[in-house]
Amino acid sequence: MATLKEIAEAAQVSVATVSRVLNDDPTLSVKSQTRQKILEAAERLEYRVPSAKRQASQRLTFAALYTHGQELEINDPYYLAMRYGIETQCEKLGITLISCYDFKGDRPLVAADGLLVIGKPPAAAQAALAQQELPLVYIDGVTDDPRFDCINVDLYKISRKVIDYFISRDYLRIGFIGGRDDPANADQREQAFVEYGRHKKVVRSQDIYYGDFTSQSGYQCALKMLEAGDDYPPALFVATDSIAIGVLRALHEHGIRVPEQMALISVNDIPTARFVFPALSTVRIPSETMGAQAVNLLTERLRDDRAIPLTVYVPSSLQLRDTTTAE
Fold first, then answer.
1. What is the DSSP string of 127-167?
2. What pTM value is reported for the model?
3. Which residues pair with 318 in a beta bridge?
């Protein structure tokens, strides 16, 4: 049987292009004449697509396992954008998508060719996923399992970036308001903030507050912070924009001027961030892109029988608006 290299030489294209054409890669953009040359060369050389490849090129079904309930998307559009990226890319590639919310590992997995796991699963769900053999991509939930792909953002880097910015603006005391999925375990943003902030000598234990990831929780945490009167940090790092919206309301109610008396930076850059008053300075995370690239990663693994797992970190960028002082 002919090899991909022989077909590539006959059609005068790269081996990668031959592979993607013969496997019906829907993401490939190639001229119709080039595609026809490759198919004619493959037929002339009597090339046959291996059975595993033929199966992978058929219409696929993915299951999206959301570790949160659907109501969270109302409070935090970060996850709504991620779902939109998944759904849009699956539709673009002709992939059937089954969505399962509030996945905790307490019910059987749906029949699918591959799994997309959104968020960090609880222990029981993690154990259930470890037992299955399907290709799997974690989104926004780093895993130590060496078998699976992962799409994520470097939250440690984000925390350090925010602290460095505040220090560059001469803030010597920085507070934190965040959320925890498990009250006993700090979120990565909180962990990095505490470690790096203490290293830089700008963080105090009494300036760290956490609840969940809702605006109501941010409001309550800010009220608790303001109970000490005027003894509050002049700069604040907030784990998400949704939490920050609640924080801003509490500051407004107490007459705290932002950013004159307290500067604030949050994370995610949801659409609402630029329309609240004052407009939120925030770290933009392309969550829609995370969802779309997870679909691409899973498709590619099935198509190419890739055995080596990949971890992909998407970039983030600081968007300075009105909750920080002007440059």
1. HHHHH--S-EEEES-----TTSEEEEE-HHHHHHHHHHHHH
2. 0.76
3. 283
